[in-house]
Amino acid sequence: MGSLKTTIGKLEFTNPSILASGIMDETGLSMARVLDSGAGAVVSKSIGTKANLGHVNPCFLEVTSGYINSMGLPNPGIDAYKKEMEMAIIKGKVIGSIYGASAQEFVELAGKMEDFGACAIELNLSCPHAKGYGIEVGTDPKIVKDIVVAVKSSIKIPVWAKLTPNTHILSDIGRAVENGGGDAVVAINTLKAMVIEPEFAKPVLSNKIGGLSGNAIKPVGVRAVYDLRESISIPIIGTGGISNYRDALEYIMAGASAFQIGSAIFNDGPEIFRKICGGISKFMKRYGYDSIESMVGIAHE
Ligand code: DHB
Questions:
Q1: CA–CA separation, 268 vs 290, rounded Å?
Q2: What phi and psi, each to the nearest 5 degrees, are found at residue 292?
Q3: Gyration radius from the chain CA atoms
Q4: What is the DSSP letter of 52?
Q5: CA atoms of 200 and 178, how far apart (whole Å)
Q6: Which residue among 61, 95, 142, 250 is least packed, with the fewest CB closer than 10 Å?
Q7: Contact between residue 161 and residue 185 where contact means Cβ atoms under 8 Å apart
Q8: What confidence score (pLDDT) does residue 15 get?
């Protein structure tokens, strides 16, 4: 059977499945459980400089083929997250997701995540609704490059940038990450979305706008990865609506060297990592692929 090993720059993963930020990653124990369930790595919750309660309810909705959430980046703050990181890294690779309003904040957070044992940093440049954060910094190529340059020069571990699909200049943003020295891009984060309750004539979410995830966004994500593959040469990690091995293969063939799983965990639990990897292994055997690398980007050929 072909190996499921994959590499992202200098990092090697036993398999290409990674837990996406925001699900089962509030605590070290939950991240450890996902690593025990077969994930090649986990991404932490997005962490900021200070504790943040997030938005009041309702902040999470199920919709047709997906979910809309506007959690409001709830997190205990970087210093309190140290113990969660330390508990998780006993079990495997943890990528530290961070959000900030300025390059200096990202630098401070990245340095601490590196000290806590993260194997890489994922810059959240893509939360769809947080004032002053996320897409407000992540859709301007100059700001993106400045943040990547600043973080790269301050730490030794690789820097990944998680990009938003809520832009018509995705390729420019990808190039900004590459030109800034970024080690990989992660595509895509959630799509800006809203649900209105006709009886109340009002948006349902307390924040009105949230981010759509789940099956509904998979074709958007696959297209985004395909576009990025044509514009940049650094590795791509694909994410958005993956719930079975065929979804994962679409991302890999579009150009992703690894993929992240989030929403599907609500239905299938963390066992989904082993299930998807098993499906990929069987597919590789049946169709004669001997490595993940041999499938990355082949839809372009
Ligand atoms: C939140 C953060 C995200 O990056 C996202 O895509 C959706 C929601 C949040 O914490 O609200």
A1: 28
A2: -65, -45
A3: 18
A4: B
A5: 46
A6: 142
A7: yes
A8: 98
Going from the Cα of 93 to the center of ligand 1, the distance in angstroms, rounded, reads: 22
Q: Is 127 a catalytic residue?
A: yes
For CA atoms 123, 48, 132, 18, the dihedral sign is positive
Give the type of residue at 184: A
Cα–Cα nearest to 151, from 201, 189, 192, 113: 113
240 in contact with ligand 1, CB cutoff 6 A = no
At residue 1, does pLDDT exceed 70?
Answer: no
pLDDT in tens, 125-175: 999 888 888 888 999 999 999 999 999 999 999 999 999 999 999 999 999
Q: How far is the CA of 124 from the centre of ligand 1 (A)?
A: 9
Provide the pLDDT for residue 45. Answer: 98
192-247 confidence digits (pLDDT tens): 999 999 999 999 999 999 999 999 999 999 999 999 999 999 999 999 999 999 99
Tokens of 12: 């090697």
- For residues 242 and 261, what is the distance between their CA atoms, to the nearest angstrom? 6
Whether ligand 1 lies within 6 angstroms of the CB of 37 is answered as no
CA of 71 relative to ligand 1 center, distance in Å: 6
Residue 191: CB within 6 Å of ligand 1? Answer: no
Question: Is residue 70 lining ligand 1, measured as CB closer than 6 Å?
Answer: yes
Question: In the structure encoding, which two tokens stand for residue 75, read together?
Answer: 């997190």
pLDDT given at position 131: 87
